[in-house]
Amino acid sequence: MYKGGYTGKVLRVDLTSKTYKEEPLPADVAQDFIGGAGLTVKYLYDEVPADCDPLGPENKLIYAPGPFTGTTIPCASRMAINAKSPATGAVGVATTGGHFPVEMKRAGYDVIIIEGKADKPTYLWIKNGEVKFRDATDLWGLTTSDTQQVIKDELHDQNIRISCIGPAGEKLSRIACIVNERRVAGRKGLGAVMGSKNLKAIALRGDQQMTIADKEKYDAARKRMLEGMRKSPILYPEFSRYGTSTTLDLTQALGIYPAKNWTATGVFTPADKIGGYAIESRGMGKTACATCPVGCSQLRLAKEGPYMGFFTEGPEYETLYAFGGVTGVDNPDAIIACDRLADELGLDTMSAGVTIAFAMECFERGILTLEETGGLDLHFGNDVAMTKLLHMMGERQGLGDILAEGVKRAAEKIGRGSEKYAMHVKGLELPAYDVRGAKAHGLNYATAFTGADHNKGYAFQEIFGIPIPKPIDRLSYEGKGWLCKWNQDARTALADSPTMCVFLMDMAVADFMFENTANLMAGATGLSYTPEEVHQVGERINNLARVFNIKAGFTRADDDLPERLKTEPIPDGPSKGELISQADLDAMLDEYYDARGWTREGVPTRAKLEELRLGYAADALGI
Amino acid sequence: MKVKVRSIALIKSLLGGSDLEVDLPEGATVDDLMARLTAIGDPALASHLAPPQEESAHAPLRILINGRDITVLDGRRTVLADGDDVLVFIPIAGG
Ligand code: SF4
Fold first, then answer.
1. Contacting residues of A for B67, CB less than 8 Å apart
2. What fold, for B2-89?
3. Facing residue for A249 by CB, picked from B8, B71, B93
């Protein structure tokens, strides 16, 4: 049984009947799934019918920080939110940092499960064991920062933490995100799930302190981690100063910064205008998530042109791709403005940018006419048109109404051969790494249980050259099935579940990452794991999520990459000529399924599921 | 023979801010190239370009030849060829 770290309580809220109750967090569930993403996958699997309509009342919205959240472990300020994704129809877990996750623990909960649908716009006010269902009719239509401010004013407490949606979520955009402070659980359309429940926000406040199970072990583990952070040659000197933005300079140097809807990688190279070093001139200081001494979150101000005065927390690397490379825009101030605009509307920057880039390619190819764009000249690089279109997507006006569905459904609606320009896997738009030049990273896009999700199995060996568990050649195919599994299980177990900021994994504790989590778990919760058992928790979560997806109708055929990546080589630059052919993808998939102990059809075997204490999932599959 | 040297961030500024073309004798290795760069760049380069003192888990300096990391080639003993494109930098992880 856990003796610290957890609050031990699950809050279940039914919006239909306006009732709530508390339940204990079972000890074996904590041991097997740790927290965060792990717990949300477990509850989703147990309680949400895999074949349900993601926007129907049967879907549930599940929040879970981890056992480290709310303790003094550095950078453990994150949480996972999960539901069946309206973008993919698969498991939809997304993570966010900031301060809300810590406040949720202080309010007393390891998990909050939101069920049903409110009869009118509602927000929840949760404080020390009491839940109030408050009228949100007047908040409907407000942007995310206005929503947070109005709630704080209404409740007369400026220290409340709020998780909410903007107009995009209300209007059921399948690329809508959930925002807390200026942080987002961005991907997989979770904002639409919240909107479908007529839930505008969750506000909470609490004062519970986390218990620590074994102070001595905890202090020793924490000290070792802080030492790793201090010793890192990059964490404080560089990362704290630039955040994720300089990844653009790196990916461009490697020739894998995707440009113009993935037609111009290595050709359009804007690092000198929008790379991390170039946009330092827009810097206005930085901020940090709770308990983080690093503070990688850069604050930036648009300084020129029509965007002057726009202020944002960001843009992160992914956004420098979404409103930069992939749309062919090299105006830093436009990117800053669109980053803020997307957060305010409650749209995921990545999905929005890739969907706009798709519309741009359709326009350049004559598939979309000036009439259909409402007079917008959607050539690549037109930042004014991009900004306008983003706004139209948030409010679902004109062409924006179709694009708010995300790139997969937009292409299906537009038709006329546009489907081959829709860059997504399983309905989730592609992230900012041209994986034709990073093969394990590409295999992760194809197989991650949430769709094309870089964070689910980030191949940091290929991108950053970190030789753990061993040196990896980003351009070779050998061993990539094994590596992809290794990364997916590691990320899930080490970052998304306990929870811990993923940047620490790569930069500070890479050489003792499993041990680090095992030590911290022993200290904080009293639950004991070997480093291998920690890794296996990640494997368990990946397997259970896979079974949910199989029950939802997914097969090997869905573990795919867009046609362009399989047939069109990178046109220029240091990765020129690279692609991932169907044959190479098939070979990697075979190796990946073998490494996972799955059939070549991508179905977990009973033996594997039983080894992971998931026999009930084998029963559900009838195997 | 001539090799092209590209760099980013700190290493780039210590090398004078632009890409370089470096003349090397036939058979020169990555180590030879690093010694040459140390000689022509800012003195502060020495500590960054020197081979790692101990077999640390991950040395911060990253060197790629024609897009391939030297850790999957012959490390710092990798022999360079005329026309090679060498990328030298200290990466920041995170994306
Ligand atoms: S490193 Fe950045 S993202 Fe991670 S916890 Fe700190 S501020 Fe948050």
1. 254-255, 437, 474-475, 574-575
2. Ubiquitin-like (UB roll) (3.10.20)
3. B8
